[in-house]
Amino acid sequence: MIASFLRQGAPFGLCLFSLLLLGCPPAKPGVSTSAASPSPSVAPSASPSVAPPRATPAGPIAKLTIYPATIAPPEGQQWPVKIQPLPPALVGVPSGDREYIEIVFTVLLEATDAKIRLLHAIKRTQEGKTLVDGGRPAKIKDKVRRYRSTTTLLQERLGQLNPSSKLEAFHQSLLEALGQQLLFFKATMKNRVAWSKMPELASAKRSRYLTVRAWTQLKGAFPKLDAAATASFKSHLDALRLY
After folding, report:
1. CB of 201 within 8 A of CB of 188?
2. How many CB atoms lie within 10 A of CB 237?
3. What is the rounded distance in angstroms from the CA atom of residue 20 to the CA atom of residue 8?
């Protein structure tokens, strides 16, 4: 979702130049214009009625925008645990950390989505079933390539953030957890690890440990979280965890 959007983003100057050639002045801020057809590159991974995390151009890597109020896993699959959406109030999160938290947990949704898509593809492959992508037969190597591209981009996005000092340890744990998940899938494919043996890989255990540690660190950073924020944060981290 994010990776394809970034690859297709056009510079603002080029868009403006094109509009002037056509004799169409750009819309002024706040002026309503007719809605364009949604681009296939940002189509929801779940049902059309669900608003997925979205990105808009801002700097070398897109800045993720408002966290969606309704979330769903890829069509035909389930989240590893029931994910509680971020509550609007985010009680217990200081105003200076709110934007950081919204970006991070949107990234975690994307990373979890990418993870379960590839796990699903690996399981089907090991069961001798056909893989499908967009209604057409697909290859596992293409699924792996897409996962690596998406997750590497998400890891880079996290790396560009500047958390407050109290969130630095939490931030580092998340970066390492995503790195371990990349190593996990690399080892799984390279060594053709059986489905039942995959949880025993060192990278799987390390990633699991890091996500648990991240939750402990987040609670320490925000000791006044209310029940809604606590449940939401924990469910996201539990869903990201490998096994």
Report:
1. yes
2. 26
3. 21
Hey, what amino acid is at 205? K
**CB neighbours of 73 closer than 8 A, spacing ≥ 6?**
45, 46, 79, 113, 116
Q: Distance (Å, rounded) from C-alpha 142 to C-alpha 118?
A: 10
Tokens of 166: 């109290």
Question: Three-class SS of residue 16?
Answer: helix
Query: Mind listing the pLDDT tens digit for each residue in 59-117?
Result: 333 444 567 767 888 888 899 999 999 998 999 999 999 999 999 999 999 999 999 99
* CA nearest to 116, candidates 81, 77, 171, 172: 77
Backbone torsions φ then ψ of 223, nearest 5 degrees = -70, -10
In angstroms, the CA 149 to CA 3 distance is 7
The CA radius of gyration of the chain, in Å to the nearest whole number, is 19
**DSSP annotation of 166:** G
Q: What is the dihedral of CA 141, 147, 152, 157, to 10 degrees?
A: 160
Contacts 24+ apart (CB under 8 A), 125-129: 126/194, 126/195
**Residue 54, token pair as written in the block:** 């979205």
pLDDT (tens digit, 9 = 90+) per residue, 121-160? 999 999 999 998 888 899 999 999 999 999 999 999 999 9
Q: Return the residue matching tokens 């590839």.
A: 118
DSSP state letters, 110-156:
HHHHHHHHHHHHHHHHHTTPPEEETTEEE-HHHHHHHHHHHHHHHHH
Is 0.85 surpassed by the pTM of this model?
A: no
